[in-house]
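User: Could you check the structure of this?
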Amino acid sequence: MSTIVLLLVTGLGLGALYFLVASGLSLIWGLMRVLNFAQGAFFTVAGYAGFFAAEALPGTSPWLRWCAGVLAGMLTGGAFAILTEVLLIRPLYRRPVGQVLVTVGLALATLALVEGAFGSDPRQVTLPDWMSATTTIFGAAIPNTRFVVILAALLVLLGLLFFLQRTRYGLIVRAGVENRAMVSALGIDVQRAFTLVFAIGGTAAGLAGVLGAAYYGTIDPSRGTSMLISAFIVVVIGGLGSIGGSALAAVLVGLLQQFLNFYAAAGVGDFAVVLLLAVVLLVRPGGLIGRAPE
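Assistant: Sure, the predicted structure tokens are below.
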């Protein structure tokens, strides 16, 4: 029983990390039709920004240092995303192939720059005592970082749904996707709303970068790439452009990986996720929650 509980919570925590990265991908694609392969770069740069922000406050409260790291990571992710949209994506809105190439190039360049600046070896992160401890549930000693990541993902999910359905800018973005010319004719700056969408996606990836460091206990340049791959799988399984679908798919992928890698063999869970992706594409091309591509 304790093993099942541990795998369950750990799988939910891993799924929460996937969702934080995938939510930005899904939001940007669903509202702007941009495949952003630089999302992993936002994750990596923000993770290092959070790490160094925390290290820059020696002698202060561990909670203050960690919160400063979270804030720095989110701001860095959001700022990086804004610069990417303004300088690289905006001139290419009518050229989807160019968008893919420029974001892939940005991701590769960022990885090389981070490795050149900080090396490729993992760096140990310092966490508050409570986050480094465990909580026992039904005999399972569960790291408290799992609960933090799950709570953060739930808050981001609720925040995104509220933004899209209840706020003025959310309505503008949704209307701009359907008929950008009409919205612009009404005197509304759709471009500003689209920049905001990119900023939200980058901020979510930045939060994931800092929480990912807490989840794994270390930070390294290559983790953003692996997270990006998993996030794309989550987005496709859940349905391109569906925030709710991404959340559901992230939970399925995280649990599938944890349980099969433990009870079968290492790597079996990853293979099962790819197999699930293939089945979904064959049976429901639009994903679990989403429309089939036109």
